[in-house]
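Re-run with default settings, no changes from the original entry. Doing this only to confirm the output is reproducible before filing.
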Amino acid sequence: MPKTTLYIVRHGQTEWNVEKRMQGHKDSPLTELGEWQARWLSEALAPIKFDEIYSSSSGRAVKTAEIISGKPKDQIKVTDQLKEMHLGVWEGEIQATIRENDQKRFSSFWNDPEQFEANGGESFIDVQKRVLPELQRIIANHTGKNILIVTHTVIIKILMAYFEERPLSKLWDPPYIHPACLCKVELEEGKHRICLHGDISHYKHEAVGLY
């Protein structure tokens, strides 16, 4: 069986990331730094020919996928199945406000994800049921290909936990999923190998004026 390689990327920094707002299914544009983060990754991945490009349907992910791949949206497979976790009434709210007004649920989100119950949104188990079948479909349909997947923090945590066989209770263990970070997973002969997890070696820290 030929080797399949997944390049799983979080979108670049957004305006709401800077404001520390929960985004979920809502959206905000990439910042200037967010676009640079995607460009830096595009440069690092320039030698790779992507056979398939998938993106969450959220604008911040699609824009990141366009920058990384150099392809227009109509050449990217855009899917709702890769959207961020639906956070219900939290979406658009500042994290500090949520922590103050919904302490028990906020603590559960970060410290006890197995038991988290969203107010009008998804649980982490709901996200697993949505995302993991999509992952399996992508792998099955593109065996032996280089596949770029641009998505979101919780989705990446769920995907990488699947490959690591990490329990949901440890979902938030390191590494941190930075904007435009890269995870690389190779699949061959029924086995998989995690080559990169949350990698940001493509960041150009000399661009101090953008931070």
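The beta strands are 4-10, 52-56, 77-79, 146-151, 182-188, 191-199. Residues 124 and 188 are 28 Å apart (CA to CA).
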